[in-house]
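Notes from the 1:1 (GR / supervisor)

We went over the backlog. Supervisor wanted to see one worked example end to end before approving the batch request, so GR pasted a single chain during the call. The sequence is below; no edits were made to it. Supervisor asked that the structure be written out right there so they could see what the output format looks like.
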Amino acid sequence: MTRETISYGGWKHCLRIANGDAELVVTLDVGPRILVYRRRDGRNVLKTFPGELGHSGEKEWMIRGGHRFWTAPEDVTLTYYPDNESVSLESGSNGASILGNRIPSPHPLRKDLSVRLAPEGTRVDLFHTITNEGSSPITLAPWALTVMAPGGTAIIPLPPLKPHLPLCQLGNPSDLLPNKNMVFWPYTDLSDPRIRPGRRFLRLHQGAGSHPIKIGLAVEEKWAAYLTEEDLFVKTFPYAKGAHYPDHGCNFESFTDNEMLELESLGPLTTLLPGEKTSHPETWHLLTSPPGLSPLNEESFAETMKSFLSAIP
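Structure output shown during the call:
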Protein backbone atom coordinates (compact mmCIF):
# COMPACT_ATOMS: atom_id res chain seq x y z
CA MET A 1 0.00 0.00 0.00
CA THR A 2 1.31 3.45 -0.98
CA ARG A 3 0.34 6.65 0.82
CA GLU A 4 1.96 9.92 -0.17
CA THR A 5 1.32 13.62 -0.51
CA ILE A 6 1.50 14.81 -4.11
CA SER A 7 0.61 17.82 -6.25
CA TYR A 8 -2.38 17.35 -8.52
CA GLY A 9 -4.34 19.69 -10.77
CA GLY A 10 -2.49 22.72 -9.41
CA TRP A 11 -3.10 21.83 -5.75
CA LYS A 12 0.02 21.13 -3.71
CA HIS A 13 -1.56 19.07 -0.94
CA CYS A 14 -3.27 15.97 -2.27
CA LEU A 15 -3.28 12.50 -0.74
CA ARG A 16 -2.53 9.61 -3.09
CA ILE A 17 -3.56 6.15 -1.85
CA ALA A 18 -2.68 3.17 -4.05
CA ASN A 19 -2.29 -0.59 -3.97
CA GLY A 20 -1.19 -2.85 -6.81
CA ASP A 21 -4.62 -2.65 -8.46
CA ALA A 22 -6.12 0.82 -7.94
CA GLU A 23 -5.36 4.43 -7.08
CA LEU A 24 -7.21 7.28 -5.36
CA VAL A 25 -6.27 10.96 -5.17
CA VAL A 26 -8.00 13.16 -2.58
CA THR A 27 -7.31 16.89 -2.43
CA LEU A 28 -6.73 18.49 0.97
CA ASP A 29 -6.73 22.07 -0.32
CA VAL A 30 -10.54 22.14 -0.72
CA GLY A 31 -13.32 19.71 -0.07
CA PRO A 32 -13.81 17.02 0.97
CA ARG A 33 -13.22 16.00 -2.68
CA ILE A 34 -11.98 12.79 -4.32
CA LEU A 35 -10.40 13.69 -7.67
CA VAL A 36 -9.10 10.40 -9.07
CA TYR A 37 -10.23 6.78 -9.03
CA ARG A 38 -8.64 4.42 -11.51
CA ARG A 39 -7.33 0.95 -12.09
CA ARG A 40 -3.58 0.50 -12.34
CA ASP A 41 -2.54 1.93 -15.72
CA GLY A 42 -6.21 2.78 -16.40
CA ARG A 43 -7.90 6.10 -16.95
CA ASN A 44 -9.54 8.22 -14.28
CA VAL A 45 -13.24 7.32 -14.28
CA LEU A 46 -14.14 10.57 -12.49
CA LYS A 47 -14.79 13.77 -14.41
CA THR A 48 -12.97 16.91 -13.24
CA PHE A 49 -13.18 20.44 -14.62
CA PRO A 50 -9.64 21.68 -15.35
CA GLY A 51 -10.53 25.36 -15.15
CA GLU A 52 -11.69 24.91 -11.54
CA LEU A 53 -8.77 22.80 -10.30
CA GLY A 54 -5.88 24.30 -8.38
CA HIS A 55 -7.91 27.20 -6.97
CA SER A 56 -9.42 27.86 -3.54
CA GLY A 57 -11.13 30.55 -1.52
CA GLU A 58 -13.89 31.32 -4.03
CA LYS A 59 -17.00 32.87 -2.49
CA GLU A 60 -19.37 30.79 -4.62
CA TRP A 61 -19.78 27.02 -4.78
CA MET A 62 -17.65 25.33 -7.48
CA ILE A 63 -18.48 22.00 -9.09
CA ARG A 64 -14.81 21.02 -9.73
CA GLY A 65 -15.89 17.43 -10.37
CA GLY A 66 -14.80 14.19 -8.71
CA HIS A 67 -16.72 12.93 -5.69
CA ARG A 68 -18.34 15.39 -3.28
CA PHE A 69 -20.54 15.34 -0.19
CA TRP A 70 -23.78 17.34 0.05
CA THR A 71 -26.85 17.54 2.27
CA ALA A 72 -30.38 16.83 1.09
CA PRO A 73 -32.97 18.06 0.38
CA GLU A 74 -31.30 20.43 -2.08
CA ASP A 75 -31.16 23.97 -0.77
CA VAL A 76 -29.51 27.02 -2.32
CA THR A 77 -27.84 28.04 0.95
CA LEU A 78 -27.04 24.92 2.99
CA THR A 79 -26.44 22.43 0.15
CA TYR A 80 -24.44 24.90 -1.93
CA TYR A 81 -22.37 26.33 0.91
CA PRO A 82 -18.87 26.65 -0.65
CA ASP A 83 -16.40 23.88 0.16
CA ASN A 84 -13.47 25.96 -1.08
CA GLU A 85 -11.19 25.91 1.98
CA SER A 86 -8.52 23.42 3.03
CA VAL A 87 -9.54 20.38 5.08
CA SER A 88 -7.83 18.38 7.83
CA LEU A 89 -6.53 14.85 7.53
CA GLU A 90 -6.57 11.94 9.96
CA SER A 91 -4.52 9.11 8.51
CA GLY A 92 -5.09 5.40 8.66
CA SER A 93 -3.14 2.42 7.35
CA ASN A 94 -5.14 2.10 4.12
CA GLY A 95 -7.18 5.27 4.01
CA ALA A 96 -7.94 8.60 5.56
CA SER A 97 -10.60 10.60 7.33
CA ILE A 98 -11.07 14.00 5.71
CA LEU A 99 -12.38 16.42 8.33
CA GLY A 100 -14.42 19.09 6.63
CA ASN A 101 -14.73 22.66 7.79
CA ARG A 102 -17.66 23.84 9.87
CA ILE A 103 -20.56 25.23 7.87
CA PRO A 104 -21.62 28.23 9.97
CA SER A 105 -24.78 29.27 8.12
CA PRO A 106 -27.70 28.82 7.83
CA HIS A 107 -27.18 25.97 10.36
CA PRO A 108 -23.84 24.94 11.87
CA LEU A 109 -22.81 21.54 10.47
CA ARG A 110 -19.63 19.60 9.79
CA LYS A 111 -19.24 17.10 6.94
CA ASP A 112 -16.48 14.48 7.25
CA LEU A 113 -15.53 11.88 4.64
CA SER A 114 -13.75 8.62 5.49
CA VAL A 115 -12.05 6.85 2.56
CA ARG A 116 -10.51 3.36 2.73
CA LEU A 117 -8.90 1.47 -0.16
CA ALA A 118 -8.69 -2.30 0.27
CA PRO A 119 -5.16 -3.77 0.51
CA GLU A 120 -5.73 -5.43 -2.86
CA GLY A 121 -8.33 -5.09 -5.58
CA THR A 122 -10.28 -1.94 -6.34
CA ARG A 123 -12.75 -1.82 -3.46
CA VAL A 124 -13.15 1.56 -1.75
CA ASP A 125 -15.28 2.04 1.39
CA LEU A 126 -16.61 5.54 2.02
CA PHE A 127 -18.46 6.94 5.03
CA HIS A 128 -20.14 10.35 4.76
CA THR A 129 -20.79 11.76 8.25
CA ILE A 130 -22.76 14.89 9.13
CA THR A 131 -22.56 16.34 12.65
CA ASN A 132 -25.04 18.90 13.97
CA GLU A 133 -22.86 21.55 15.60
CA GLY A 134 -25.74 23.96 16.12
CA SER A 135 -27.95 24.58 19.13
CA SER A 136 -31.22 23.39 17.54
CA PRO A 137 -32.39 20.23 15.75
CA ILE A 138 -32.14 19.90 11.98
CA THR A 139 -33.62 17.34 9.57
CA LEU A 140 -31.48 16.33 6.60
CA ALA A 141 -29.93 13.43 4.73
CA PRO A 142 -26.34 12.71 3.64
CA TRP A 143 -25.94 12.89 -0.13
CA ALA A 144 -22.97 11.32 -1.95
CA LEU A 145 -22.39 12.49 -5.53
CA THR A 146 -19.89 10.90 -7.91
CA VAL A 147 -19.21 12.78 -11.14
CA MET A 148 -18.38 10.26 -13.87
CA ALA A 149 -16.28 10.87 -16.97
CA PRO A 150 -18.29 11.35 -20.19
CA GLY A 151 -19.27 8.75 -22.74
CA GLY A 152 -20.80 6.04 -20.56
CA THR A 153 -24.20 4.72 -19.54
CA ALA A 154 -25.66 4.55 -16.05
CA ILE A 155 -27.46 1.26 -15.35
CA ILE A 156 -29.98 1.39 -12.52
CA PRO A 157 -31.85 -1.75 -11.44
CA LEU A 158 -35.64 -1.69 -11.39
CA PRO A 159 -37.93 -3.74 -9.13
CA PRO A 160 -38.86 -7.07 -10.72
CA LEU A 161 -41.81 -7.33 -13.02
CA LYS A 162 -44.77 -9.32 -11.72
CA PRO A 163 -47.66 -10.80 -13.67
CA HIS A 164 -51.03 -9.13 -13.61
CA LEU A 165 -53.41 -11.72 -12.17
CA PRO A 166 -57.18 -11.70 -11.94
CA LEU A 167 -58.37 -10.79 -8.45
CA CYS A 168 -59.46 -14.35 -7.73
CA GLN A 169 -55.92 -15.63 -8.39
CA LEU A 170 -53.98 -13.10 -6.36
CA GLY A 171 -51.90 -14.86 -3.77
CA ASN A 172 -50.33 -11.73 -2.31
CA PRO A 173 -52.50 -8.65 -1.75
CA SER A 174 -49.40 -6.45 -1.97
CA ASP A 175 -49.38 -7.08 -5.73
CA LEU A 176 -52.26 -4.64 -5.91
CA LEU A 177 -49.88 -1.80 -5.00
CA PRO A 178 -47.21 -0.05 -7.10
CA ASN A 179 -43.60 -1.17 -6.65
CA LYS A 180 -41.73 1.39 -8.78
CA ASN A 181 -41.00 4.86 -7.45
CA MET A 182 -39.48 7.19 -10.04
CA VAL A 183 -39.37 10.99 -10.03
CA PHE A 184 -38.25 13.52 -12.62
CA TRP A 185 -36.97 17.07 -12.25
CA PRO A 186 -38.74 19.93 -14.10
CA TYR A 187 -36.08 20.20 -16.84
CA THR A 188 -36.22 16.49 -17.73
CA ASP A 189 -37.68 15.76 -21.19
CA LEU A 190 -38.97 12.19 -21.13
CA SER A 191 -38.75 11.98 -24.92
CA ASP A 192 -34.96 12.44 -24.74
CA PRO A 193 -33.30 9.34 -26.30
CA ARG A 194 -30.62 9.34 -23.59
CA ILE A 195 -33.31 7.93 -21.26
CA ARG A 196 -33.58 4.22 -22.06
CA PRO A 197 -36.08 2.29 -19.92
CA GLY A 198 -36.07 -1.49 -20.03
CA ARG A 199 -37.64 -4.48 -18.34
CA ARG A 200 -34.90 -4.91 -15.73
CA PHE A 201 -32.94 -1.65 -15.81
CA LEU A 202 -33.30 2.04 -16.37
CA ARG A 203 -30.40 3.27 -18.48
CA LEU A 204 -29.27 6.87 -18.74
CA HIS A 205 -26.65 7.62 -21.37
CA GLN A 206 -24.19 10.49 -21.18
CA GLY A 207 -23.79 12.15 -24.54
CA ALA A 208 -24.69 15.12 -26.64
CA GLY A 209 -27.99 16.65 -25.65
CA SER A 210 -29.41 20.11 -25.43
CA HIS A 211 -30.91 19.82 -21.93
CA PRO A 212 -29.91 18.37 -18.56
CA ILE A 213 -31.73 15.30 -17.24
CA LYS A 214 -32.30 14.22 -13.67
CA ILE A 215 -34.07 11.09 -12.45
CA GLY A 216 -34.62 9.75 -8.93
CA LEU A 217 -35.61 6.27 -7.77
CA ALA A 218 -35.99 4.00 -4.79
CA VAL A 219 -33.33 1.37 -5.56
CA GLU A 220 -33.97 -1.56 -3.24
CA GLU A 221 -31.30 -3.61 -5.05
CA LYS A 222 -28.70 -1.29 -3.42
CA TRP A 223 -26.41 -0.77 -6.41
CA ALA A 224 -25.96 1.23 -9.59
CA ALA A 225 -23.31 1.01 -12.31
CA TYR A 226 -21.66 3.11 -15.00
CA LEU A 227 -20.41 1.33 -18.10
CA THR A 228 -17.90 2.65 -20.65
CA GLU A 229 -15.88 0.85 -23.31
CA GLU A 230 -12.98 0.50 -20.84
CA ASP A 231 -14.49 0.31 -17.36
CA LEU A 232 -17.43 -0.90 -15.29
CA PHE A 233 -17.84 1.25 -12.16
CA VAL A 234 -20.15 -0.17 -9.50
CA LYS A 235 -21.45 1.77 -6.50
CA THR A 236 -23.29 -0.01 -3.68
CA PHE A 237 -25.30 1.73 -0.96
CA PRO A 238 -28.00 0.94 1.62
CA TYR A 239 -31.76 0.98 1.34
CA ALA A 240 -33.87 0.93 4.51
CA LYS A 241 -37.40 -0.20 3.75
CA GLY A 242 -39.91 2.10 5.43
CA ALA A 243 -37.40 4.92 5.98
CA HIS A 244 -38.22 8.45 4.85
CA TYR A 245 -35.93 9.40 1.96
CA PRO A 246 -35.65 12.82 0.29
CA ASP A 247 -37.27 13.80 -3.01
CA HIS A 248 -40.41 11.65 -2.71
CA GLY A 249 -38.58 8.57 -1.49
CA CYS A 250 -35.32 8.49 -3.48
CA ASN A 251 -32.20 6.75 -2.20
CA PHE A 252 -30.58 7.11 -5.62
CA GLU A 253 -30.52 9.87 -8.24
CA SER A 254 -28.70 10.45 -11.52
CA PHE A 255 -28.03 13.71 -13.35
CA THR A 256 -26.45 14.19 -16.75
CA ASP A 257 -25.64 17.01 -19.14
CA ASN A 258 -23.28 17.56 -22.07
CA GLU A 259 -20.14 17.12 -19.94
CA MET A 260 -20.68 14.38 -17.36
CA LEU A 261 -23.05 12.07 -15.50
CA GLU A 262 -23.54 11.85 -11.73
CA LEU A 263 -24.32 8.73 -9.69
CA GLU A 264 -25.83 9.98 -6.43
CA SER A 265 -26.83 7.93 -3.39
CA LEU A 266 -28.74 9.35 -0.43
CA GLY A 267 -29.32 8.33 3.16
CA PRO A 268 -32.68 8.60 4.94
CA LEU A 269 -33.88 11.93 6.28
CA THR A 270 -32.82 12.11 9.92
CA THR A 271 -33.52 14.66 12.63
CA LEU A 272 -30.25 15.43 14.40
CA LEU A 273 -30.30 16.96 17.85
CA PRO A 274 -27.38 19.25 18.81
CA GLY A 275 -24.19 17.18 18.85
CA GLU A 276 -25.73 14.18 17.05
CA LYS A 277 -24.42 12.76 13.78
CA THR A 278 -25.55 10.53 10.95
CA SER A 279 -23.39 8.52 8.54
CA HIS A 280 -24.03 7.19 5.03
CA PRO A 281 -21.82 4.40 3.59
CA GLU A 282 -20.96 3.56 0.01
CA THR A 283 -18.60 1.08 -1.61
CA TRP A 284 -16.95 1.48 -5.01
CA HIS A 285 -15.62 -1.21 -7.33
CA LEU A 286 -13.90 -0.80 -10.69
CA LEU A 287 -13.66 -3.60 -13.23
CA THR A 288 -12.34 -3.91 -16.74
CA SER A 289 -15.40 -3.73 -18.96
CA PRO A 290 -16.13 -7.35 -20.01
CA PRO A 291 -15.84 -7.85 -23.81
CA GLY A 292 -19.16 -7.51 -25.54
CA LEU A 293 -21.02 -6.41 -22.40
CA SER A 294 -23.85 -4.07 -23.36
CA PRO A 295 -26.54 -2.43 -21.22
CA LEU A 296 -28.93 -3.17 -24.08
CA ASN A 297 -28.56 -6.91 -23.41
CA GLU A 298 -30.34 -6.91 -20.07
CA GLU A 299 -30.11 -10.63 -19.39
CA SER A 300 -26.36 -10.74 -19.96
CA PHE A 301 -25.80 -7.63 -17.87
CA ALA A 302 -27.99 -8.99 -15.07
CA GLU A 303 -25.97 -12.22 -14.98
CA THR A 304 -22.70 -10.27 -14.91
CA MET A 305 -23.90 -8.16 -11.98
CA LYS A 306 -25.35 -11.15 -10.11
CA SER A 307 -22.03 -12.99 -10.35
CA PHE A 308 -20.05 -9.93 -9.30
CA LEU A 309 -22.27 -8.88 -6.39
CA SER A 310 -22.45 -12.41 -4.97
CA ALA A 311 -18.64 -12.42 -4.69
CA ILE A 312 -18.49 -9.21 -2.61
CA PRO A 313 -17.79 -10.05 1.08
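Supervisor's comment: The first strand starts at residue 2 and ends at 8.
Batch request approved.
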